Amino acid sequence: xxxxxxxxxxxxxxxxxxxxxxxxxxxxxxxxxxxxxxxxxxxxxxxxxxxxxxxxxxxxxxxxxxxxxxxxxxxxxxxxxxxxxxxxxxxxxxxxxxxxxxxxxxxxxxxxxxxxxxxx
Length: 120
What we know:
five-stranded antiparallel β-sheet, single chain, four-stranded antiparallel β-sheet, globular, alpha+beta
């Protein structure tokens, strides 16, 4: 039992995290590895709820929308969230739109007035 008490702080110390982009209430955070980046809706108390899963490589935002680009296995997928409709009570699948391919997203981004994505 005595060893378990000492091991727990050691194991918890191995978890690392950080923020690479923030535009409240949204942020791109990483956990354990700096390449493991996710778009989240930040909540009070340092908590957050996911909006786009890991491997986010770029983001874009205007007053009405936030968009994220994921890259996995050499393929990109494009997502967006309508800010006015977002609420922490929603799960990601309830509020996040996508994935879109590059052509569909480029058309959509132009119609939504999103600026060019900002690489992370």
